[in-house]
Amino acid sequence: MITENLKQVLADLPQGVKLVAVSKFHPKEAIEEAYAVGQRIFGESKAQEMTAKHEVLPADIEWHFIGHLQANKVKYIVPYVSLIHSIDSYRLLSEVDRLAAKAGRVVDCLLQLHIAREETKFGFSFDECRQMLKQDDWRGLSGVRICGLMGMATNTNDKAQVRQEFASLADFFHELKDGCFAGQETFKELSMGMTHDYHEAIEAGSTMVRIGTRIFGERVY
Ligand SMILES: *Cc1c(COP(=O)(O)O)cnc(C)c1O
C-alpha cells in the first residue's frame, strides 16, 4: 500500500516541489518501505520519536522536524536534523542557534506562520514576524540559516478559504524574499500543503509539501 500510495503522490508533484513524507506515529518498517521506493525526506513531529528512528534507520535519510518544538527538546535533534519547519519564536531560533554552534553545525530552519483561522495552530502572525526580522538580532546568529516559511491552512472543506490562506503566505514569502532576505539565495522554501490540501498549496507556489496520511494511512495515536 505505502509503495503504491507514494508512487501516486510522487507522480502528482510538479518538478521542483519536494516531498516530505510525514511518518510520525508510524513504525520504522513503514519508513523502510518508502525508503525502498527512493524516498529520503521524512517528517516527524516529536523530538524523541524522530531521534529513535534516526538511530536505527539509514544515515542518508533527511530528517525534517515539523511539529511544535519545545526549547528543552532542541538538544536531541540538533546534531542531525536537516530542516526545522516550525520556528515560532525568536527565543526558539536563538536556542537552536546556541546548540547548533556548540555541535559545530549550521541548522536550516523555516519560520512558521499562523495562517489558519483556528486557535490551536502555532506560529508567528505576519506582524510578529515582521517585527522580529526588523530587529537585526537574527542576522548575527551563525548557527542557523533561515531558508523560508511554513504554514498550515485551516482544516476545512472550504477550498476558497484554503486558497486564500496559502496565497497570503505566498505573498508574505515574496515580501520577505524581496525585502530583508534580498540577495540571499538560500531563502527559497515555502513549505505548505498536507494530504487534504496539497493541490491548492502547489497552485499557490509551495516548494515543499508535507504528506502523511495519503502515503502511510491513518495514524493511530
Ligand atoms: C501531521 C502533519 C502533517 C501531515 O498531515 P497529513 O494530513 O497526514 O498529510 C503535515 N504538516 C504538519 C505540520 C503535521 O503536523
Please report which band the strand proportion falls in: under 5%, 5-15%, 15-25%, 25-35%, 35-45% or over 45%: 15-25%
Distance between the termini: 20 Å
Strand order of the largest sheet: 7-6-5-4-3-2-1-8
Q: Mean pLDDT, rounded to whole units? A: 97
CATH superfamily placement:
Alanine racemase
Give the total of domains.
1
CATH class descriptor name: Alpha Beta
Uncertain runs are none
Helix/strand/pairing category: alpha/beta
Number of helices: 9
Please write the string of helix (H) and strand (E) elements: HEHEHEHEHEHEHEHEH
Overall shape: it is: globular
Q: Which cofactor or ligand species appear?
A: pyridoxal-5'-phosphate
Level-2 CATH architecture: Alpha-Beta Barrel
What does this structure look like?
The chain has 221 residues and is of the alpha/beta class. The protein has a single domain (2-216), classed as Alanine racemase (TIM Barrel), CATH 3.20.20.10. 40% of the residues lie in helices and 19% in strands. The chain is built from nine helices and eight strands. The protein has helices spanning 2-12, 28-37, 47-56, 74-77, 90-103, 126-134, 159-178, 198-203, 213-216, and strands at 18-22, 41-44, 62-65, 83-87, 107-114, 144-152, 189-191, 208-211. An eight-stranded parallel sheet has the order 7-6-5-4-3-2-1-8. Helix 6 (126-134) links the parallel strand 5 (107-114) and strand 6. Helix 1 (2-12) crosses helix 2. The chain is globular. 38% of the residues are buried. The mean pLDDT is 97. The structure holds pyridoxal-5'-phosphate. The site of pyridoxal-5'-phosphate has 14 residues, from strand 8 and helix 9.
